[in-house]
Predict the structure of LacI family transcriptional regulator.
Amino acid sequence: MNDAAPRPTLEAVAARAGVSRATVSRVVNGGDGVREPLVERVRRAVEELGYVPNQAARSLVTKRHHAVAVVVAEPESRVFADPFFALQLRGISKELTAQDNQLVLLLTEGRDDHTRVARYLAGGHVDGALVFSLHLDDPLPGLIQRAGVPTVFGGRPGWSDGTADVVYVDSDNRGGARDAVRHLLGLGRSRVAHITGALDQTSAVDRLDGYRDVMGDADPDLVAPGDFTPAGGERAMRELLDRCPGLDAVFAANDLTASGALRVLRERGRRVPEDVALIGFDDMLPVAEQTDPPLTTVRQDIEEMGRLMARLLLRGLDPSPAGPAGAAPAGAAPAGVVLPTTLVRRASA
Amino acid sequence: MNDAAPRPTLEAVAARAGVSRATVSRVVNGGDGVREPLVERVRRAVEELGYVPNQAARSLVTKRHHAVAVVVAEPESRVFADPFFALQLRGISKELTAQDNQLVLLLTEGRDDHTRVARYLAGGHVDGALVFSLHLDDPLPGLIQRAGVPTVFGGRPGWSDGTADVVYVDSDNRGGARDAVRHLLGLGRSRVAHITGALDQTSAVDRLDGYRDVMGDADPDLVAPGDFTPAGGERAMRELLDRCPGLDAVFAANDLTASGALRVLRERGRRVPEDVALIGFDDMLPVAEQTDPPLTTVRQDIEEMGRLMARLLLRGLDPSPAGPAGAAPAGAAPAGVVLPTTLVRRASA
DNA sequence: GACTCGGTTGAGAGCGCTCTCGTGGAGAGG
DNA sequence: CCTCTCCACGAGAGCGCTCTCAACCGAGTC
């Protein structure tokens, strides 16, 4: 249907500039060791011919692809369906393209995809991988780790409790949860309940831990299991209200959960925040800002998480600059980086 | 940090199986014209060595990359931040991987990125592109079109009013809008208002056109400009209520807009749907289901749109099967494919 | 039984690039 | 003025693969 003119090669540029292929190559790749007049001539030839290097040929010899895979496990799950992930992707993309790397997106669902992805990564088509997987029992991270591709994880993987040499970026779920609960206590509330997230995900576990850090072993009846969905929030809220009618505050594991809880609170005639203060997590805008009252919540800098993941990976790939005096000891990559969270006060608490 | 064993090459497999490189290549690529015993021997060698073809080397000679770029213009905009896009991406991904193609994600913002993307595409690193751009005046689609890469657009591009040979997939915004308005009329409402979307996007224009198809040139005061955001919806709703206190139904250009309108309606003491029936567009779940009352809205099969885009592109790339008796005349690609919408009845209308 | 023919296999030429060497010329040193 | 060094440049090998083409082999054919 199209397939027009064959794209110009190094050879063509060389001919036009009246130099050798090697010289053109040098110019194209930075131009060190080539005298100014020649550089200029080559540049012009490149320009005139509209030359663009053939990445395949280049990769063939350099073994670098300037491409990074972003693996998202189980996209039906929460990761993919909310703006959270879109933002992270944006951060990743920015950082990657800033360093002239491409982003290869790999979405998986189910076993078949696991092996497909593992093969692909092991196949050496990309220089590294950024992996998102929420579930503790997901075999994918393990497979990937074994594939021998440099990898950075988004969120703390379940099987790495600070031990192994796994590189990941996470936000401070535990600290954020503590802040939320403390805020509630600071408001003079004392019977603070918690609706957990899906506890097969580290973020949910960490948030629960944060709650416990502050509340100690308060009344265990004040904790009800949720699953990060509005429906789960409703269910848990009913349960809590039945069990502990006297509760005066709720910390929900995320904003979606909080929105469900909010509906039940209203239905049961509790005023928010007067009777019950409510606080969420994520600061998922379309939800947090649209509820009535708007949700007080814990925000994470999602885009920055993405950037950081990419930066970490790229740094690990590139055995070069080392900065002023060697920023970080060569082999010792930072195992996990945890980004701070901030409390966003709106009307619900 | 790692870089372990060099991966086995075709040569290695050939040696192990006691055949020539050519034969291994034939087997790896389908095995036609190779006798069974040999095929078996080669297969085993591949297995034992864990051989994975080097895609770079392959691309170098075949000029096919088995990779498709997905270009998303202006990710700050609505496209990227909502689940809409995530779903579309999922559809694309499924279709692409089913045919063993990779998905290279290109996010752009601003001029610099435009030229970067154009260069990348023109550079022949991918076999084709799927492009999302919402704004009528976006120069990117034009640039891409000129880059000579096979392209399918998501959503009807502004500059192609059915004329040019542009391939795109869109949902039936106009028809969906008509359905919505007719539904409202069917409910016995007569003063049906419309809050438009951002009119620099074809989807918004099409929805407005659909409204007009049914309402004729009703009272122009019944149309107020929005911008696809909740805030825009609030503003427009206030305007409408001031101008036409007697209105009894509102068709909002999308769910976000509807949620804003809903808030204003409640604030002004109008009951929904008793006093004013309200209907949205998109069926953006976290919004449409969470409002009070839940939103009646027009749904599009987003994931299918994605799949279809990918399928269209791939079909255009592959000059092969042609199906039973040549499904479609070779050169005559279907210019635009428009997917149907369905009305989802909830409580608001 | 010599000959042809369709089908299988191997040899070898590149695809476009990078990178190692070797060469030649300009400048420094004796 | 001649040698030694250093640096800019070109020649050429090869990255791992596909694909054309020639060689070969067994089965028909006359």
About this structure: Residues 320-332 of chain B have pLDDT under 50 and may be disordered. The longest strand of chain B covers residues 67-73. The first helix of chain B runs from residue 10 to 17. Residues 9-11, 21-22, 25-26, 29, 53-54, 56-62 of chain B lie near DNA strand D (CB under 10 Å from a C1').
